[in-house]
User: What shape does this take?
Amino acid sequence: MDMLDLGGRKFRSRFILGSGKFSLDMTKRVIERGGVEIATLAVRRANAGGEENILDHIPDGITLLPNTSGARNAEEAVRIALLARELGCGDMVKVEVVRDSRYLLPDNRETIRAVELLSREGFIVLPYMMPDLSAARDMATAGAAAIMPLGAPIGSNKGLLTKDFIKILVDEIDLPIIVDAGIGRPSQACEAMEIGCAAVMANTAIATANDIPLMASAFKTAVEAGRKAYLAGLGRVKDRGEASSPLTGFLEDI
Amino acid sequence: MNPSVDRSEYCEGMERIGSDIMENVLRGALEFEPSTFTEHDVRAALSDDSVGVRGFAALLSPVADNMLEEIAVRAKDETHRRFGNAVGLFTPIYLSNHCDGGCVYCGFSNRSKINRMALSPEDAEEEMRAVAATGLTDVLLLTGESRRESGVGYIGECVRSASRYFRSVGIEVYPMNTSEYACLRECGADSVTVFQETYDPKKYAELHLSGQKRVFSYRFDAQERALLGGMRGVSFGALLGLGDVRKDAFSCGLHAHLVQRRYPHAEISFSVPRLRPFVNSPSYVNPVSERQLLQVAMAYRIFMPFAGITVSTRESPSFRNNIIGLCATRMSAGVSVGVGNRVGEESEGQFEISDRRSVAEVRRSLEERGMQPIFNDYVRT
Assistant: This one.
């Protein structure tokens, strides 16, 4: 069976749901319609014992992927991850280290350090990163269980702007590559899967739809279609021109 | 140069940080000619992926006032993409109304004959318990501008208590030095709000007659000192209606923009307080309509899409309900603007509030409108 493997944990679904941008009472329906098995949540939104606590709205059987949103360096990311563990979110963590409030672009250098520290703490670490091959290699060496490059700035719905660089990661890194941010439509999710990404995460694209559960279901189908296409092996798609007369014909005249 | 802008007018102990942001904002405001913009400029800004200073200026221009609907479409989209349907809830806690400032427009001014008091740290804690019981985890502690009656040590003590009851503690107190902000940060404060009131130095000098507050430039650098002192977030605001609305809004946005560029990690937010039109408005007021206020708030949103925007309880429930989702992302609930009102003290408020709804009522009304009330969006690291 074709399963997504994250640090030894196996998942059937390759569509990871982001949370925080739609009402909590909608969460259950979105998870059902999207066939979701992993949902991310910002530890900063957790309100244990208080009002509107997102942790109370995640159905049983769903694997939580807490993120370290709010961290500006590796040490802060570690503290947030430890807090997530205390809150009962389990051992998987998505590392987000951001030192930029305008674009929310990740800081690869601090992220590599955070991966190192958190792997040592026994976490299954999934770093959110700018798709850069050297940084991805360092994260893999530091113990990452998957690499989560961004497709475009978070919340931009611009799709796979970094497609060529993500493809390099797919080709060169022996870990699941999960596109994390920027995916705006199901067709873009499908495209990411076609090129060999192991999973896709989306939040804004779903939260900004008129019918949120229906969009979740559209993503589910798109991710499945893209995965099947990848497994089937895309036929040759011509992206270069062909010479009208043979370039090697001269060999016959020699 | 106008005295209040000149840093040689600093009082003893006021720190100099050598920033040039104020000079750049004042120059920008002088060069900003609201009437020169055309509909074309506004549309160009709206179709620009990332709206710069010129686009921001266009959105604040008189011609943009006729294009609010088009602007609202973009503002709503930006808000929705960045914040989804989330709306942060918080409440202010007034610790002290002692004030050395002679701000002619303010209820706490040293010229107002009001009952002056500062909550004892014990009473402050009791007030905090009352607020915590409503479920809120985000508070803003306020004092008047009096170092004498509410010193940094006193504020620090209150911040320390607050950080035990709440997940996020903001302070809106008189501007202070970097080391003092660092001390309050140590006590548990996370963010600092300072309103420049008006960005017009001449008007500022007319309205701020006494106390340290009369030094425009020291106040201006407060957000930078707060960030240098380690605060996570800073909030900006012009009290719209004191000076020229468009110029003040432009200056405030430019101020936040330049601070963000210098401190890219800082969490930036805006407040949009205004002086509303009322019978016998004093002559120094240029009353601001709800339409103008909305234009300003939407311009902030489109210019700095990531910034939080807080809407005041000075505004009516219906205005607040509607501006939330369009561009505002944070609102107060269960508000009292007097000192110790929640623990039975009777003191006058700083201003008149229009939205007296409790936390539960605000929450219900947000949910009815398909919005998501957020009680916590902060994690201390």
Summary: Residues 4-253 of chain A form a domain with the TIM Barrel fold (CATH 3.20.20.70). The longest strand of chain A covers residues 124-129.
